[in-house]
Amino acid sequence: MAHSPEVAPEEREKWNLDRERDIDAMEDYMHVERVIGSRDGEEETEYYVKWRGLSYDGCTWETATLVSELAQLEIDRFLDRSSKLPVSNKAEANAGSRRKYERFLTQPSYIQHGELREFQIKGLNFLAHNWCNGKNVILADEMGLGKTVQTVSFMNWLRHDRGQQGPFIVVVPLSTMPAWADTFNNWTPDINY
Question: In Å, how far from its chain's centre is CA 99?
Answer without folding.
Answer: 29
